Amino acid sequence: MGYAASFKVWRGDAEGGDFVDYTVDVEEGEVVLDIMHRLQATQAGDMAVRWNCKAGKCGSCSAEVNGRPRLMCMTRMSTFTEDETISVAPIRTFPVIRDLVTDVDFNYQKAREVPAFAPPEDLAPGEYRMAQADVERSQEFRKCIECYLCQNVCHVVRDHEENKEPFSGPRYLMRFAELDMHPLDVRNRKEDAQEDAGLGFCNITKCCTEVCPEHIKITDNALIPMKERVVDRKYDPLVWLGKKIFKREDLEAEQRGATGARSLENPGPDNGSSLDADRIGPVGTT
User: Fold this and answer.
1) pTM over 0.70
2) What is d(CA 161, CA 106) in angstroms, rounded to the nearest whole number?
3) pLDDT tens-digit map of 190-230
4) Phi/psi at 46 (nearest 5 deg)?
5) Is residue 118 classed as helix, strand or coil in its secondary structure?
6) Mind giving me the DSSP string for 24-71?
7) DSSP E strands: which ranges in 199-262?
8) Quick check: 207 and 156 in contact, CB under 8 A?
9) From CA 114, how far away is CA 112, in angstroms rounded?
């Protein structure tokens, strides 16, 4: 049975804006994205909303509903009472383009800064072999739909704009951790994560894990283990002594620069990818 719900929807652009009150009809079984579509169709035809699949798999409809970052397509109206006023705002960490649409280019820049998978030089594409246990270890992280809710709630960048340059955020630190767990990746991901991606900025508040719609345990299974491995290599006094005795610094520097095997037909870019589709060099390159 339907009812009329009260909404406060943020309207505006990069120059500024504010919440606008609307009363919108709600039918049984609907989600917040349904209501935004009805609002567009009946009262606010010029309202900007980003969406794609409406199935919780594309990550496009991220917004802050009643102050909590969510996917609008996965937020059922039945979770709210009929007399509740529901606020819908754009995710806060990224610049507003218009209304509920934000510029998430920051995330694509950080994705391009992650060096690609670097397999051993003596293995050609098609010769990679892994134990099933190793596959399962990082399979969880492949569920990411890149909704960027974890990036949005990470206070390191949410509250400190100046940290966006040195800090990649939980989504891409998770990618470093995934590659570091890969038994065939030969690059020194620990050094990359600490020195280039700003792993040290993370203070494991677990807010990224709490908002993940895919229920990936970003903090417990990716970031904390990665921090532990970095500490072992960088600060453990026994490791430090071993480096001095056996002169391991040169080897670790070589590992950090490793780009892995290349295809004979396509040598790939400097980040080690042998596939043309993976040409993701540093930002600013072509």
Assistant:
1) yes
2) 11
3) 989 999 999 999 999 999 999 999 999 999 999 999 999 99
4) -100, 10
5) coil
6) EEE-TT-BHHHHHHHHHHHT-TT-----S-SSSSS-TTEEEETTEEEE
7) none
8) no
9) 6
**Cα dihedral: 109, 110, 112, 113 (round 10):** 130
**Side chain identity at 196, as an amino acid letter?**
D
Query: In this prediction, what percent of the chain has a pLDDT beyond 90?
Result: 70
- What DSSP line would sit under 112-162, residue for residue? HTSPPP---TT--TT-----HHHHHHHHGGGG-----HHHHH-HHHHS-GG
Residue 114 has pLDDT above 90, yes or no: yes
Residue 128 pLDDT class (50, 70, 90 cuts): confident
Region class of 56: left (phi > 0), else alpha (psi between -120 and 50), else beta: left
Q: How far is CA 43 from the centre of its chain?
A: 34
pLDDT, one tens digit per residue, over 61-92 is 999 999 999 999 999 999 999 999 999 999 99
Going by C-alpha positions, the residue among 231, 232, 205 that lies closest to residue 219 is 205
pLDDT at 244: 66
Cβ count near 13 (within 10 Å): 13
What is the Cα–Cα distance from 221 to 138, expressed in whole angstroms? Answer: 9
Report the pLDDT value the prediction gives residue 175, as an integer from 0 to 100: 96
Amino acid in the structure at residue 230: V
What are the two backbone dihedrals, phi and then psi, of residue 259, each rounded to the nearest 5 degrees? -115, -10
Report how far apart, in Å, the C-alpha atoms of 190 and of each of 96, 116, 174, 178, 253 are.
Answer: 34, 14, 12, 11, 11
Residue with tokens 């390191």: 156
Q: Record the tokens describing residue 252, joined without a space.
A: 């670790």
Q: Please name the amino acid found at residue 69.
A: P
Side-chain half-sphere of 90: how many Cα atoms within 13 Å?
25
Which amino acid belongs to residue 262?
R
CA distance 67 to 191: 36
